[in-house]
Each structure stands twice: as structure tokens, then as C-alpha cells.
Design goal:
It contains 17 helices and eight strands. It is an alpha/beta fold. Helix 5 links the parallel strand 7 and strand 8. 49% of the residues are buried.
């Protein structure tokens, strides 16, 4: 099958890489868009794609994967290979097993980066669920055109690792955006959120909100491990904020440093170079960098490490499957916790300085709100919550995307 016909059902941002289709209302537009592409044939729906393709990729949201496979799966060409690239594999694999003919092979995949990131050297997970080695080798060769690093996992291992590396990371930045919106702030327009660690917070928050809501909703709501971790992050934020409010410095310091010891020192990182240094952190800013930095208690970072500690997660264990955003987030948490003087300053600020208190209050509300949203499993509420905040920050997305791409490029060169 060296001349395999590839089929794509779903032509969203991650699907335009070929017999292909999207929803019927997009048929004419896609047909026109690819009219000059000799090797791309657009079908009105998934029946044509399924019947004519040797390797079929379902590039649809995790929320709708079962419905779409139920409709088109029975038309799958005999002995074809079928896969999907959803961020949560449990519902995807269940849909394939439920609706595909038994002679069809199942090899799934997931690119661990967004649509605006160069796939070269980025991790691409391949899941050989029900297939011969010959078919698996074929899929590997087809996908090698991206230049990504292939990582072989089971569906279960994929979901556990993506929960460890993405779910809480997304929750933290979604909560930051919610808090800034609630305070009616564009944070980069104040000196409090410009320079160093603050650059990463602002850029990644805007990067996440510039994407489609379902990219994050599926991973958070449909992945059982993700629900637990997002709930723990909200609890860590709440517990630490209460210690700050109560002025319990000794208890706060003990908890923060115990968590840091477990995540960084015990993981053997003490003598390793930092993932991010001042040269990277200060370079990419959405606003004018002030001469003097405003001390911040960095509740979001303290809670992240506390969450990893409580869940027994060692973030460095999953670097081979980490996204660029996770590496940035790990880089800034490591930067804080492996600089003792800075960490002591943060703890003192948390107890003695009220500058960020209203921001922290809204951040705590936001973290708990996103956790409740995920626990209830309501996609419509998640979408409404996400898109309200997205519209608030939308005017700055182009600049944030440009700066974020530059930041990620530098990070990838270093890691």
C-alpha cells in the first residue's frame, strides 16, 4: 500500500495538512479553496472519504467523535486503517471499537502542539491499538513528512500523560485570563505584569484564548485524569490564598518549600541548567518593561507546584511528550523555585504586600469556577465562559501570537 490514499474527515485548523470533507455546509468553500490542488479531492461528506481511502484520519472534536464515527464508520473501505487526532483518546478509541467494521485497523495519533507551531521536532504520539506492524510502519512513514519526533504509547498512557502535562497548565492560564477580565485589566498595560515571569503569563494566556474553545474543553472534560488534576489545582490555589490572607507565613513557607523540594530537588534538577533564564524571560514583552520590577506573590506558580506535589507528579518525567506551552510553564516555575532569594521574596510578598490581593481573589474564584465547569461536564457552559473572555482579549491576539511564536522558538532551541 505504498500508494495509499489518505482521507481526512474534518478540515479544521489541525486537519489541513487526499480525499477530504468537512460539514456539508463547507463543501463548496473547500472545493473552491482546493480547486488548484491536484492531489486533493473534496467530498461532500464522510461517506465518500471512508469508501475511497486507505488511511482515514478523523480530525474532529473529541466531543463529537462518537457521533461522526457512528455516521461514517460503517462505510469504511475494507482493510483500511483508521485513526483520529483528538486530544483525549478514551472516547475516540471507544467510538472506533463501537462503530468500525472488525476488518478495519486502528492506529491513532496526536500532535502535541497547536496549529501555529512548526511540527518539526515536536512530539507526535502514535497509538497502535488494533493493527499489524506493516500498517503501523506505513502510518509512521506517511506522518514522517512533518519531521516530528514519534512517540509510541497506548491510548491509556497518552491520556494520563496529556492530563499531567496539559490539563492543569491550561486551567492555570484560563484562570488568569478570567481574573484579568473580571478586574477589567489588560495586564501588560500596567507595570505590575510586564517583564520576566509576567511576560510568559501574559503571552501564553493570550495564546490559549486565541485558539478554539474545544481544543481545551475536550481534554479537560472527557479525560478522567484531567478532572482530578484540575480539581486539585483549584484546591491548591484556595489553600495557599487562605494562608496568605491569614498571614500564616511559617505554614505557607513550609508548604511551598516542601512542594518545591519534592518536585525539583528530589527529581535531581538541583545541578541542571534552568530551562529559562533572564535573557529569555525579559526579551518578549507586550508592554514597556519598567526600570524596577513590582514584587508578585505568584499564586498561580506556587499552586502549580503544590498541585504537582499533592498528585505525585514529576513534570520532568514527561518531557518527551510535553507541549511547548508546558515547557514554558515548567520553565517559569522552575525559575522561581530554584532561585532561593526570589522564592523568599515571593513568600514575603504573599504575606506583607496587598498589591495583588484583588487579582488573587479573582484568580481563586476563577480556578474554582473552571474546576466546577469541568466537573459538571457541560460543554456549552465551558464554551460560553471561554468565548466571553476570548472576545475581551481578541484585539491583542495577533501581537501576542507573534511574540509567543518567537518565545517558543527560543525555548525549543534551548530544550
Amino acid at each position: 500500500m505504498e500508494e495509499a490514499v489518505i482521507g481526512i474527515i474534518g478540515m479544521g485548523l489541525m486537519g489541513k495538512m487526499v480525499h477530504a470533507c468537512d460539514t456539508r455546509d463547507k463543501f463548496k468553500a473547500l472545493e473552491e479553496e482546493f480547486s488548484d490542488s491536484e492531489n486533493v479531492v473534496i467530498f461532500e461528506d464522510g461517506y465518500g472519504v471512508s469508501r475511497s481511502s486507505d488511511y482515514i484520519i478523523y480530525s474532529v472534536e473529541a466531543e463529537t467523535i462518537d457521533k461522526v464515527v457512528a455516521e461514517y464508520g460503517r462505510a469504511t473501505k475494507k482493510h483500511a486503517i483508521v485513526g483520529g487526532q483528538t486530544s483525549c483518546k478514551a472516547p475516540e478509541i471507544a467510538a472506533f471499537e463501537r462503530h468500525l467494521p472488525p476488518d478495519v485497523e486502528i492506529i491513532s495519533c496526536h500532535s502535541l502542539h497547536g496549529p501555529n507551531v512548526d511540527p518539526k521536532e515536536q512530539p507526535l504520539v502514535l497509538i497502535k491499538h488494533r493493527a499489524s506492524q506493516q500498517s503501523f510502519d506505513l502510518v509512521s512513514r506517511i506522518l514522517s513528512c512533518f519531521g516530528s519526533k514519534h512517540v509510541h504509547l497506548s491510548a491509556e498512557a497518552h491520556d494520563r500523560i496529556t492530563a499531567d502535562t496539559q490539563a492543569v497548565t491550561h486551567a492555570a492560564f484560563l484562570s488568569m485570563g478570567t481574573a484579568w477580565r473580571s478586574n477589567n485589566q489588560f495586564p501588560w498595560e500596567t507595570t505590575r505584569y510586564v517583564g520576566g515571569i509576567e511576560n510568559v503569563k501574559c503571552n501564553i494566556t493570550l495564546r490559549i484564548y486565541s485558539n478554539k474553545w474545544h481544543v481545551y474543553a475536550g481534554l479537560a472534560i472527557l479525560n478522567p485524569s484531567a478532572k482530578q488534576q484540575i480539581r486539585q489545582y483549584a484546591e491548591s490555589v484556595t489553600d495557599l490564598f487562605k494562608l496568605m490572607l491569614g498571614g500564616h507565613k511559617a505554614e505557607l513557607e513550609k508548604r511551598v518549600k516542601t512542594a518545591g523540594e519534592a518536585v525539583f530537588t528530589a527529581a535531581g534538577r538541583a545541578g541542571e541548567p534552568l530551562l529559562l533564564g533572564d535573557d529569555v524571560l525579559d526579551r518578549f514583552s507586550l508592554g514597556m518593561v519598567p526600570k524596577e520590577r513590582t514584587p508578585n506573590n505568584h499564586l498561580s506558580l506556587l499552586a502549580m507546584v503544590d498541585c504537582w506535589w499533592k498528585l505525585g507528579i514529576v513534570p520532568y518525567d514527561h518531557m518527551i511528550c510535553s507541549t511547548p506551552l508546558f515547557r514554558l510553564w515548567l520553565g517559569v516555575t522552575e525559575y522561581l523555585f530554584r532561585k532561593p532569594t526570589l522564592l523568599d521574596e515571593v513568600i514575603n510578598t504573599a504575606i506583607e504586600d496587598n498589591t495583588f490581593r484583588s487579582d488573587d481573589l479573582e484568580f481563586t474564584f476563577a480556578a474554582r469556577g473552571w474546576s466546577d465547569c469541568v466537573t459538571f461536564g457541560d460543554f456549552s457552559v465551558y464554551r460560553d465562559r471561554f468565548e466571553q473572555i476570548q472576545s475581551y482579549f481578541a484585539p491583542r491576539f495577533p501581537e501576542a501570537t507573534r511574540i509567543g511564536n518567537e518565545m517558543i522558538k527560543v525555548l525549543l532551541e534551548k530544550t
